[in-house]
Write a structure and sequence with these properties.
It comes from Lentzea roselyniae. This is SIS domain-containing protein. About 50% of the residues lie in helices and about 10% in strands. The protein is built from 10 helices and 5 strands, in the order H-H-E-H-E-H-H-E-H-E-H-H-E-H-H. It has helices spanning about 5-25, 25-40, 55-60, 85-95, 100-105, 125-135, 145-150, 160-165, 190-210, 225-240, and strands at about 45-50, 70-75, 115, 140-145, 165-170. Strands 2-1-3-4-5 form a 5-stranded parallel β-sheet, with helices on both faces. Helix 2 (about 25-40) packs across helix 9 (about 190-210). The termini are far apart.
């Protein structure tokens, strides 16, 4: 066995162990979030998803995805995406006021649910998103790392976890890197852990919907036979409320 094989195996075990911890730690909270989302679907509400920087990868995971919810509206501003400017995206996330601007454009109602993805959970944008939504009576689900937040600078005076309705903790260590285990410098785990949490939620949601007889609005892949036809009704229903569906 080569050294590279051993190294790869060690990393794989590390990730699998982390995801197992994430699943066990969030079991009760995932049930609570599934109830919130199911209630929003039944009320014909929207699931709004937001993040900044690399947390926008989680937002992309929730939107227009095969097997995903069609009632998801991504909350987005170009300044927050590193590919539109890495340094400026960091500055935008730390700027007070942007969250209110973005939410006003998107619209928000008490029968909606806002997901805010932010592993550090301390910058103005994610914290103010949660505060604005809570003030409007909309439930807020924080997908964050409580441990990372505790050790990061409190730039917004509070953390995302402190102002959310429900917290899903991705258990990401401060700095995000995981390898080598004793002195980590690479292999960020936040995207993997956060995507895993979202899919754990989808699984619970499907099970609860089946139990209660609720028809979930789920996308089909556009690259399988009949996918476009299956999605046509969903597009007609949601396109006026989700401009990103184009």
């Amino acid at each position: 066995m080569t050294t590279d094989t051993v190294t790869g195996s060690d990393y794989g075990n590390l990730v699998r162990t982390h995801l197992t911890r994430v699943e066990q730690h969030n079991a009760a909270a995932l049930d609570d979030v599934a109830e919130l989302v199911l209630a929003a679907v039944q009320a014909d509400g929207m699931i709004l998803t937001a993040g900044a920087g690399h947390s926008l990868a989680a937002v992309a995971e929730t939107f227009y995805r095969a097997g995903g919810l069609a009632c998801v509206r991504p909350i987005y501003h170009p300044e927050l995406l590193p590919m539109h400017g890495a340094i400026s995206s960091t500055a935008a996330e730390r700027r007070s006021g942007l969250a209110g601007e973005v939410l006003r454009e998107a619209g928000l109602a008490p029968h909606d649910v806002l997901f805010v993805f932010s592993t550090s959970g301390v910058n103005h944008y994610p914290v103010e998103l949660a505060q604005e939504a809570a003030g409007a009576g909309c439930p807020v689900v924080a997908v964050t790392s409580v441990t990372s937040s505790a050790q990061a600078p409190r730039r917004a005076g509070a953390t995302l976890a402190e102002v959310a309705t429900v917290v899903l903790d991705n258990l990401v260590p401060p700095g995000d890197s995981t390898y080598p285990e004793q002195a980590p410098v690479t292999a960020a785990v936040s995207t993997l852990a956060t995507t895993f949490l979202w899919n754990l939620l989808m699984v619970r949601l499907v099970d609860k919907a089946t139990e209660t007889g609720v028809q979930l609005p789920l996308w089909r892949s556009a690259n399988v036979e009949g996918g476009d036809a299956a999605n046509a009704d969903l597009l007609r229903h949601y396109q006026t409320r989700i401009p990103q569906l184009g």
